[in-house]
UniProtKB/TrEMBL annotation:
Transmembrane domains' residue ranges: none
Species whose genome carries this gene: Bacteroides fragilis
GO molecular function: DNA binding; zinc ion binding
Protein name: Mobilization protein
SUPFAM superfamilies: Zinc beta-ribbon
Gene Ontology BP annotations: DNA replication
Length: 213
């Protein structure tokens, strides 16, 4: 099963396979009690059309793979393996049709962007240093974003992806305005090698280590 195939599996069907049902449904989306934490009120939204989720209680969200990673505390490869094998006896992912989704149809992001600016926030630079990443090395690649979720203000490191969205990260939040990969091409002659990183923090760690060496 590929990354794309895994994310084409319906999040609604996946949650149903775990015995998790929406508390309310309104056409194109359902509101659930969060499967990631104690949740007395339904604050976990699943957009059926875009096949994306958002936990308004934490501000996190993303694709099915993101959800499985959060639930099982594993990486993307581990999440795909779990989906491929099937998590419960009542639901099997094997042989399930995986229709191509309309990539032009995007869910309205719960993240309201207020402003994006060059990296200078002391708290974010301190966070990078705590992760062993040099802020000076990171600055050409990341910015800082100020945004709102449900009217509450937040800020985070922002790493632009190929769809024009941003991957966001701070000590308490990992999410995105819209998910995609990011290609970074090195200058000079074409290379035969391609380095693949699970997330932009891994990439920044690699750059920091390379500069030290």
């Amino acid at each position: 099963m590929t990354y794309k195939e895994a994310n084409n599996i319906s999040i609604k069907d996946y949650l149903n396979s775990l015995g998790i049902q929406p508390v309310t449904e309104k056409g194109s989306y359902g509101m659930y009690r969060s499967p990631l934490r104690e949740d007395n009120t339904p604050s976990f939204k699943v957009d059926y059309n875009a096949n994306l989720w958002c936990d308004y209680g934490t501000g996190e969200g993303g694709t099915l793979i993101d959800l499985v990673m959060k639930q099982n505390r594993c990486n993307a490869y581990g999440a795909i393996c779990r989906l491929e094998q099937g998590e419960t006896a009542s639901f099997s992912f094997h042989g399930k049709d995986l229709p191509e989704r309309d990539t032009k149809r995007q869910a309205a992001s719960p993240i309201e962007i207020r402003r994006i600016q060059p990296l200078q926030n002391p708290a974010l630079m301190r966070y990078l240093q705590e992760r062993g990443i040099s802020p000076g090395t990171a600055a050409p690649y990341v910015q800082e974003m100020y945004y709102r979720i449900g009217g509450k203000p937040y800020f985070a490191l922002a790493f632009r992806n190929d769809s024009g969205g941003y991957e966001l990260r701070n000590p308490r939040f990992k999410g995105s305005t819209s998910k995609d990969i990011t290609h970074i091409r090195q200058q000079g002659e074409p290379r035969d090698a391609c380095f693949v990183f699970e997330g932009f923090m891994d990439y920044l760690s690699f750059l920091t280590l390379r500069m030290k060496n």
